[in-house]
C-alpha cells in the first residue's frame, strides 16, 4: 500500500483523475441523489477506499443532508483528505479514518449508504468486504461499488492487461462475480450502470432489504 501513501500528494493531478476518477465521483453523486430522492431524510455515508476525499468534497459542497466518513488503508490519503475540510464545522466536516476494508471499525447498521470507487480491485478477499459492507448498512440502505469494467475488449485490455501489469496483484472482478458477491451478502435489486469509454467503468448497485 506504500504506492498510495506516496501518491497522496499528486493524486488529484493524475491523468486518471480526469479520465476515470472524476467520472466515477459524478456517477456516485448522481446515484446518491437518486437514493436520497427516494429516501428524503438526513443520511450517513461511508466511502471505503476514499483516497483524497474527493467524493466527500462533492457531497460537502452540495445540497444533500449527508454526514460523510471516508476510510482508507493509506494513512497519507486520509491526511490529504482531511486537509481539504478544515474550514467546515461539526457534522458538515467529513471524517477520515485509516483502516482496512475487510475490518471496518463500525457498529452494525451504522450507515445508510456505502460507496467504494476504483479501490475494490485491490482487495484480496472481495466477498468478505461486500459482506462487511452489508453488515454496516442500515435496513433500506444502498451499496454502490464502482470499478473498472473488464467485460468488454477495451476494458479487458486496459484493466486486465495494462493496469494489472502496472499495479501488480489486482483483480477487476467480472460483472457476474460482482453480482454473486452482492447476492451472497444478501443484497437485493442488484443492477449495474456502465459509463466511460477509454477507461470503461461500472457501478454495481444493491440494496439491503428493509426488513433485514
Ligand atoms: C485508485 S484509489 C481510489 C480513490 C478514490 N475512491 C477514487 O475513486 O478516486 C484506491 C484507494 O484504495 C485504497 N485501498 C486499497 N486497498 C485498501 C483496503 N484494503 N482498505 C481500504 N482502502 C484501500 C488505496 O489506499 C487508495 O487510496
How would you sum up this structure, described in words?
By secondary structure, the protein is of the alpha/beta class. The chain is built from seven helices and seven strands, in the order H-H-E-H-E-H-E-E-H-E-H-H-E-E. The chain has one domain (2-207): Rossmann fold (3-Layer(aba) Sandwich), CATH 3.40.50. A hairpin with a 5-residue loop joins strand 6 (188-195) and strand 7 (201-207). The structure holds S-adenosylmethionine. S-adenosylmethionine binds at residues 1, 4, 21, 24, 49-51, 54, 72-74, 77, 100-101, 117-119, 122-123.
Structure described in brief:
The protein is α/β, with parallel strands linked by helices. It is built from 7 helices and 7 strands.
Q: Compute the gyration radius: what is it?
A: 16 Å
- What oligomeric state best describes the polypeptide chains here? single chain
Q: Could you tell me the CATH topology label.
A: Rossmann fold
Query: How many independent structural domains?
Result: 1
Gross CATH architecture: 3-Layer(aba) Sandwich
Name the beta content range: 15-25%
The number of helical runs is 7
What is the 3D form? globular
Q: How would you sum up the major sheet?
A: 7 strands, mixed
Ions, cofactors and other bound molecules = S-adenosylmethionine
Distance between the ends: 35 Å
Structural class: alpha/beta
CATH homologous superfamily placement: Vaccinia Virus protein VP39
Across the major sheet, the strand order is 3-2-1-4-5-7-6
* CATH top level label: Alpha Beta
Q: Could you list the spans in which at least 5 consecutive residues all have pLDDT below 50?
A: none
Q: Mean of residue pLDDT?
A: 95
Amino acid at each position: 500500500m506504500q504506492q498510495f501513501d506516496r501518491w497522496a500528494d499528486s493524486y488529484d493531478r493524475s491523468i486518471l483523475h480526469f479520465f476515470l476518477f472524476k467520472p466515477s465521483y459524478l456517477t456516485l453523486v448522481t446515484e446518491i441523489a437518486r437514493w436520497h430522492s427516494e429516501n428524503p431524510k438526513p443520511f450517513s455515508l461511508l466511502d471505503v477506499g476514499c483516497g483524497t476525499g474527493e467524493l466527500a468534497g462533492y457531497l460537502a459542497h452540495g445540497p444533500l443532508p449527508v454526514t460523510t466518513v471516508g476510510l482508507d488503508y493509506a494513512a497519507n490519503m486520509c491526511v490529504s483528505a482531511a486537509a481539504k475540510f478544515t474550514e467546515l464545522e461539526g457534522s458538515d466536516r467529513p471524517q477520515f479514518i485509516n483502516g482496512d476494508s475487510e475490518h471496518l471499525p463500525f457498529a452494525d447498521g451504522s450507515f445508510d449508504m456505502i460507496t467504494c470507487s476504483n479501490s475494490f480491485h485491490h482487495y484480496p478477499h472481495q466477498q468478505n468486504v461486500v459482506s462487511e459492507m452489508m453488515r454496516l448498512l442500515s435496513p433500506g440502505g444502498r451499496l454502490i461499488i464502482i470499478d473498472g469494467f473488464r467485460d468488454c475488449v477495451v476494458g479487458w485490455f486496459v484493466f486486465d492487461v495494462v493496469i494489472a501489469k502496472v499495479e501488480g496483484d489486482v483483480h477487476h472482478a467480472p460483472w457476474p462475480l460482482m453480482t454473486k458477491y452482492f447476492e451472497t451478502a444478501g443484497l437485493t435489486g442488484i443492477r449495474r450502470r456502465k459509463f466511460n469509454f477509454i477507461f470503461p467503468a461500472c457501478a454495481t448497485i444493491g440494496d439491503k432489504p428493509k426488513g433485514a
